[in-house]
Amino acid sequence: MSKMSLTTKMLVALVLGIATGFILQQVPPGMVRDTIIVGGVLFFVGELFLNLIWMVVVPLIFVSLVVGVTSITDPKKVGRVGGKLAGIYLLSTFPAIGAAMFFGTVLDPARGVTEESIGAFMAEPTIGTPPGVLQILIGIVPRNPFAALSGGQTLQVIFIAIAIGLAIIAVGEAAKPVRELFIALNEVIMKIVAAVMKVAPFGVFALLARTFSLLGIEAILALIGFVLVVWLALAFHTIFVYGAALKVFVGKDPHTGQSIKMSTLFKKGAPALAFAFSSASSAATLPVTMRCGRNMGFSREMASITFPMGVTLNMDGTAIFQGVAAVFLASFLGITLDAGQIMTILITATLATLGAAGVPGAGMIMLSMVLVSVGIPIEAIAFIFGVDRIVDMPRTAINVFGDFVYGMIVGKQEGMIDFAQYNNPTDLAQFAELEAAEDAALAASRA
Ligand code: ASP
Questions:
Q1: CA of 6 relative to ligand 1 center, distance in Å
Q2: What number does the ligand 1 atom closest to the CA of 359 have?
Q3: Residue partners of 20: CB distance under 8 A and separation at least 6
């Protein structure tokens, strides 16, 4: 077991968990099944795992966002590029969530679910009163930042993190130790997250086995439908939105006069996409993404702004997942979303992707923020928790692919793409040598 990769372990846990759930359904009800196994061991392990995830969420968002904002090291020089990227990263989230909610609503995989089939799982969903959009916006600014951190107010945490990050940049040299502290803290938290992910297969197994032992067949079919709709929305976004963005905003390659092809980005980005898919972490993929970006012709500076910023700010894949999930869970619980609530989902999911760190499952944790904002009970996440990995892998790959596409758009405008390298079928082989030569040229130009 220990030799398997985490991805394999998660898939094994997934299959075993579902199978165990079905087997438990066949076991006659009684103390052993209900109190000891489902209500005892599985409940204990599953809840423990959920608590672990919740434990890391606030420090994770807070620290990684501060580091993300401060990764724009030279705001004057990179301000315009960084600003354009940030704008595009943010704005592109809207069509992503929009398409996701469209597919979620039209295909409505939770349609056939009856109250009985989820009744045993969630006795009485407590449906809160949805807060209004104004209320959400006012609530973004915390009166007491410490209360926001300790109370897990994720929107407020995001606000404080951005404020601190911008202030660190503005202060400059004197705040360098603070930035370094945050970078070190980020490493520490990532270590804890990595440890949590090590036990994740057990947590996933327990959650799935319990879920599938309690859910009726329609609910299970609905979950399969959910996964398929997320995949479909991701594919739609990649082919149509990224395809159109490349055509309209990048257009022709000045070197050859031919259109920029998505297939070239796929080919040159393949190592990063594969790593993102199997690790489900765009943060862990960052070094590979940078290398692929340079092979596409990104200048060193362009790559070092585009990709670290993209890890935190650009998560179209995660946004798509959240859009489908919000619509799905609402339908699952029989809640009809009105226009105001749909707008609220658009805004909160955009903010939630900003706050999601590029680690496995982050998007699902942040989903709680979206659900709360429209009054869907947070416990509903438990339904999709078990299948999250299957949708996390493709959404992470799309998160990374989006960085390439948007980086191409801004990079071409700013003249920071080397189209000779873009057209070069062979990769830049010696990165260390290349970067040493670049450093030498830079030093010479300053002398
Ligand atoms: N795993 C995703 C990423 O690293 C974030 C998410 O959970 O949606 O990009």
A1: 15
A2: 4
A3: 205, 208, 209, 212, 213
Q: Which atom of ligand 1 is nearest to the CA of 388?
A: 7
Residue minimizing CA distance to atom 1 of ligand 1: 360
SS3 label, residue 407: helix
pTM for the model stands at 0.73
DSSP state of 430: -
Ligand 1 centroid from CA 315, angstroms: 8
In 215-357, where does DSSP find H-type helix? 217-236, 243-245, 262-279, 282-295, 300-313, 316-332, 339-355
How many angstroms separate the alpha carbon of residue 284 from the centre of ligand 1?
A: 10
- Nearest residue (CA) to ligand 1, atom 6: 363
* Residue 267 reports pLDDT greater than 80: yes
3-class DSSP state of 141: coil
Residues enclosing ligand 1, CB less than 6 A?
280-282, 315, 318, 356, 358-364, 392, 395-396, 399
Q: Please report, for residues 95, 281, 397, the alpha-carbon distance to residue 65 in angstroms, rounded to integers and kept in the order given.
A: 23, 15, 20
Nearest residue to 379 via CA among 46, 114, 125, 119: 125
pLDDT in tens, 75-129: 665 567 878 888 888 888 888 998 898 898 888 887 766 666 555 445 444 444 5
Burial of 447 (0-12, 13-18, 19+ CB in 10 A): exposed
How far does residue 23's CA lie from ligand 1's centre (Å)? Answer: 32
- Atom number of ligand 1 nearest to Cα 362: 7
Give the pLDDT score at 124: 45
Residue with tokens 């859009």: 323
Contact 139, 132 (CB under 8 A): no
